[in-house]
Write the structure tokens for this entry.
Amino acid sequence: MLLSKNVDETSRPTLYRGLKYWGKKPHNVWGEFIRQYTRQKNIVYDPFAGSGLTFLEAIKTYRKPIVADINPLTLFLINVYSKNFNSNNIILYVREILKKAKNTTIYRKNFIGKCSNCGELTDIYNYRVENNIRYARSYKCSHCKKTITDNIKTVPYNTTLNLWKPNFNLKQLFSIAPAFINKIGGDNISNLWTERNVELLSLIFNEINSNYNSERDALMFAFLKTVHLTTKMCALRSEETNRPLSTSWGRPAFLDLKSYMEQNPVLQFEKSIFGNAGIIKCLKSRSSYLPNYTYSTDVRAINDVDGIVMLKDSKKINNGFVADFILTDPPYGSIIQYGELSQVWNVWLEKFSNIYKVSLNDEIVVNRQKKYEKYIADMKKVFTNCHRLLAQDGTIVLTFNSNTVADWQALNSAIINSGFSVNNSQYQKNKRSSEANVLNKEGIGISDFYFSIKHSNSIYKGLSI
């Protein structure tokens, strides 16, 4: 067994529920791997850091994490969780932003309406849209406290704000189908939102980006929690769920939805501050879950800080430290293109600060342009670097999941041709399904396969599940 005892997934602390990120793994399972394979002050490396799980769990157990990812969300998330913020200031600034947004003509005309029960004005939580026409709206009346869904007639919308909006050609993304671009009305990434929503989002973003220097990273964290839940990719929940004020969002690809929910971006931003997984509670959870720590973006500083996080291509990291243990969740080949899907966040993040630039060309995937040969070659570069970096008696534990045989074969080829052999495997069933489960109706997406990998002596041994 990879682990000496069975470890069931437990409920995630709020800090792990805060920022949406693809493919989050069970935090306590990863924490147990780190505890079992290392001692305090040992170096734990993750070349595909993703949501920062390896970094945070290593910090929690007083190990020294070194992590890398080309996705700027990784660096941003750890930046936020590594800083101290004044919650009272955050609340004060948010109230200023909300007041300004709610006083715009766009908001008053589109997201304020009369309650059909008591006749008082109240905020509209969302609209149901089919074929780009609003046909119903839901709200919880601030006066009579009833939750109501009304059928409505659509109203025309005129642009009234002149602010920066994200500008990126969706045709550059291989995850995008031409039918999707036609459905949303254009190839600019701004078309992922309705005109109303992208304007209000731009207003909130402009306020954060222009003011509030001391707390702007925390406010941006909350903003990023808002943007995906206000796109046209928000599916309607079934009536059986009895949740008319919330949407369902979890996409393995950009989907062509005939019907969707247009969420109120101002109320979503408010929720991302004060809600159960909002930034206020995330920061409180961070403070109780993690010890105080320091980190750097320069691997040469590893002896002087508690951890390293790099916005860097892991194919090019091959010196500067010796890892006692490597724990990682590598790209799954043909299933998910995380970098492209993360553009819904990263187009805003890059404008927020030029340190968060993304390099989609470096993403290790299999798609219409990048074939399995390229995936194998890129993964081999990463594992060859890991071979150089890993202590001779060290171990790599990686998790992988795919319902495509070619993905497994490609990963296996990269491993055994990098000087490693697989010496053990373990099946781990999770409480939550991964993105793989959306594409795989047989259900392996609710599980992970873990493999322990060692330096090979002479005989290459590959993956076996």
Summary: Confidence is low (pLDDT under 50) at residues 434-444. The first strand starts at residue 43 and ends at 46. Residues 70 and 312 are 5 Å apart (CA to CA).
